[in-house]
Write a structure and sequence with these properties.
Elements: H1 16-27, H2 31-43, E1 50-55, H3 59-70, E2 74-79, H4 87-95, E3 101-102, H5 109-121, E4 126-129, H6 133-141, E5 151-154, H7 157-168, E6 175-178, H8 183-206, E7 214-218, H9 222-233, E8 237-241, H10 245-253, E9 257-258, H11 261-264, E10 270-273, H12 283-288, E11 293-297, H13 307-313, E12 314-321, E13 324-329, E14 334-338, H14 344-347, H15 354-373, E15 381-384, H16 387-400, H17 410-416
Parallel strand pairs: 1-2, 1-4, 2-3, 4-5, 5-6, 6-15, 7-8, 7-10, 8-9, 10-11, 11-14
Antiparallel strand pairs: 12-13, 13-14
Helix pairs in contact: 1-3, 1-4, 2-3, 2-15, 3-15, 5-6, 8-9, 8-15, 15-16
Amino acid sequence: MVATQIKHEVKDLSLAPLGKQRIEWAGREMPVLKQIRERFGKETPLAGIRLVACCHVTTETANLAIALKAAGADSLLIASNPLSTQDDVAACLVAEYGIPVFAIKGEDAETYTRHVNIALDHRPNIIIDDGCDVVATLVKERENQLPDIIGTTEETTTGIVRLRAMFRDGVLSFPAINVNDADTKHFFDNRYGTGQSTLDGIIRATNILLAGKTIVIAGYGWCGKGAALRARGMGGNVIVTEIDPTKAIEAVMDGFRVLPMAEAAPLGDIFITVTGNKHVIRSEHFDVMKDGAIVCNSGHFDIEIDLKALAAKASEVRTVRNFTEEYRLQSGKSVIVIGEGRLVNLAAAEGHPSAVMDMSFANQALACEFLAKNKGKLEAGIHSVPVELDKEIARLKLQAMGISIDSLTSDQIEYMNSWTSGT
């Protein structure tokens, strides 16, 4: 083991051996990131770069952190969510890999805020953000550090919404790479990763049978599509709620029932919010829910469910299983909340499977390299992941899966690029 005198705040360094086993297990399913890490080790494209990552501290994130260190970055890692940290992973990154980590599963809001400020004390040049908390704090409270910033990357829908609002308000003074909207991220991570891991979290927390249950999915973006697809696959009767008419039509044509939340609330057995907004499930919805209705969130922040309103209605709150609380209402019925309304797939399970995070974190690694190589050349604002990087990640993933695809013939290339060729 390497020396552990680096600054850190983790639960228990003795957990490191277990964390190492689990990090290596996840790495088996992350061949694209492995290839990038090997190249980074030879080229060190992030040498001299101070980097802060605010991410879910999981086995998959650990593989990203190791790749960034191989690239030469002076990195520091904090948790982006108080309940998503895997304590053995955090310990291993400190003890085995010499990476400063400030993350403890279950940390309170005060500790989380302190860790954000510790991250900014690192005076980062590049920020990997997951929800935009570090960037927002930087802009609001650390204006003197803005000249240090080369850029940031963001891989959540919530974070991109915040960055766009910052840009509209004229306070985003550096480039931000929109990793979330890369094809090799949202098509797979948001849809297949969120779909599987959300149901995994619900099942681990409750051990209930999903078949025959009415499952209400709030939001039909890529995460909602994945959750609805998997819920139906487990035998659930799925209802979708939406505010976007186009997405609502899509849900209907995908075979789901679409209702306003007010009408869905009395029908649902399980409620999953994946909107990125606040108070999607509110006081009036709790009033009409079935006794024993289960509510959980797979959006980034814990405000999609109005838990303060629920607590105000409760005569008693008790823990009934790990990460599962029963709110006994004054009316006599109860509402079950999983994972304190935080990301259920990380609070009650292990997050997305490694195979999809392989592509997401390949995007993160290459986006950091892109920012470093283009220092001072990119305008302030939100930039897409370059198409050629996105396609290269897809190509590497197919290669790792042993799948071949066709290539265009010269005749086809000419046809696709000509306006004179007829049909």
